[in-house]
Design goal:
CATH topology of the largest domain: Aspartate Aminotransferase, domain 2
Structural class: alpha/beta
Strand order of the largest sheet: 2-8-7-6-5-3-4
Bound molecules: pyridoxal-5'-phosphate
Helix content: 40-55%
CATH class of the largest domain: Alpha Beta
Strand content: 5-15%
Number of strands: 12
Number of domains: 2
Largest sheet: 7 strands, mixed
Number of helices: 12
Distance between the termini: 31 Å
Length: 379
């Protein structure tokens, strides 16, 4: 099996599974309990919080554990809207965000907020100037992703963060789900950052929200006051310590992992030029090396996903979440690609656990599938 769908999710590392199993056995106490078992679970939780904070480059007390990227994003956006609604009701985001951001913004619109979705250029990157131009007197929140999950385009969060750092009334949320671990997330100007465990070889169902110390923000999960009152509910200790184990893995091999991702991206592109020269790469030239979106003229993405699966290669169409709906890719549409290119999109996404021979074999499998299916597709 060649697994190249790492932007959808990643297999948990063996040390993550080990850590989770032993945490479930040993640290089953409620971290809020006063007795020894509670203290042990709390200590494990604190160590995990420090590890996640270290990889992001923030203070442990600024990390709130959530059930994943989606919950972190919902908390970030709704919590800001609730806390700052008396100052203004305008939110700026981009048309290429993940559904977790776009749908939360649409939900806020039903509550009386006004949302501006800034369109990207043909490269899938929203220009920083366009986002700046959308910010108004009554803008309370800007939300932008760091790396796009469908195309790998890197959004200008760094430049925007620098600009917003001088506008403290506009809260800045960064969806760093696809960059966390692999790249440094720019912190300047960022008030809120969402990350997820299962995209970095950690477990599913766990993520974190960075909330800058001193930020005015309103929680919406109420109850026992866990996570410093910012996210109530007994913490999922095994998942959280598993997430921390994954963070440690990335921190220990940051340069090496990045180097491997670059090598995989280069080898894939090279092989593609040789074996599938008529394919159209939809990812921009300056995007991350670990996400490649491409289309092959005359082919539906879905057909190729299954043809590749039959050859032991696992990839996605657009994104894992939209691939089961008939909606297609809002990201490629926003980039202005023709309908047949959008319908033909395939996403290959790599992890440092892949090796060069795997990405080359995947291209060979793609070339064979295209060759075999071409006569059928033409009919
Ligand atoms: N944001 C981006 C950019 C993503 O790619 C994803 C997952 O695909 C999410 C948010 C949601 O994260 P989770 O699956 O942890 O809820």
């Amino acid at each position: 099996m060649i697994y190249l769908d790492n932007s959808a999710t990643t297999p948990p590392l063996p040390e993550v599974v080990e850590t989770m199993a032993s945490a479930a056995r040993e640290w089953f106490g409620n971290p809020s309990s006063l007795h020894r078992l509670g203290m042990e679970a709390e200590n494990a939780l604190n160590a995990a919080r420090a590890e996640v904070a270290r990889l992001l480059g923030v203070k442990p007390k600024e990390i709130v554990f959530t059930s994943g990227g989606t919950e972190a994003i919902n908390s970030a956006l709704v919590g800001t809207a609730l806390a700052h609604r008396h100052r203004g009701r305008h939110i700026v985001t981009t048309a290429v965000e993940h559904a977790a951001v776009l749908e939360t913004c649409r939900f806020l619109a039903t509550l009386g907020f006004e949302v501006t979705e800034v369109p990207p250029g043909p490269d899938g990157v929203a220009a920083v100037e366009a986002v700046q131009a959308a910010v108004r007197e009554d803008t309370i929140l800007v939300s932008m992703m760091h790396v796009n999950n469908e195309t790998g385009a890197v959004q200008p969060v760094e430049a925007l963060g620098r600009w917003l750092a001088n506008r403290p009334k506009v809260i800045f949320h960064v969806d760093a789900v696809q960059s966390f671990g692999k790249m440094a997330v720019p912190l300047q100007g960022a008030d809120l950052i969402s990350v997820s465990g299962h995209k970095i070889h950690g477990p599913k169902g766990v993520g974190a929200l960075y909330i800058r110390e001193g930020l005015k923000w309103t929680p919406f999960v109420h109850g026992g006051g866990q996570e410093g009152g910012r996210r109530s509910g007994t913490q999922a200790v095994p998942a959280i310590v598993g997430f921390a184990a994954a963070c440690r893995w990335w921190r220990d091999r940051r340069a090496e992992a990045w180097d491997r991702l670059n090598r995989l991206g280069r080898a894939f592109a090279q092989r593609l030029r040789e074996k599938v020269p008529d394919c159209r790469v939809n990812s921009p030239a300056g995007g991350v090396p670990y996400i490649v979106n491409l289309s092959i003229p005359g082919f539906k993405g879905e057909v190729l996903v299954h043809a590749l699966e039959g050859r032991g290669v696992y990839v996605s169409t657009a994104s894992a979440c939209s691939s089961r709906s008939a909606k297609g890719s809002h990201v490629l549409r926003a980039m202005g690609v023709p309908r047949e290119v959008e319908e033909g999109a395939l996403r290959f996404s790599f992890s440092p656990l892949n090796d060069v021979s795997e990405v080359e074999e995947a291209v060979d499998a793609l070339a064979r599938a295209v060759e075999e299916l071409r006569p059928v597709m033409r009919r």
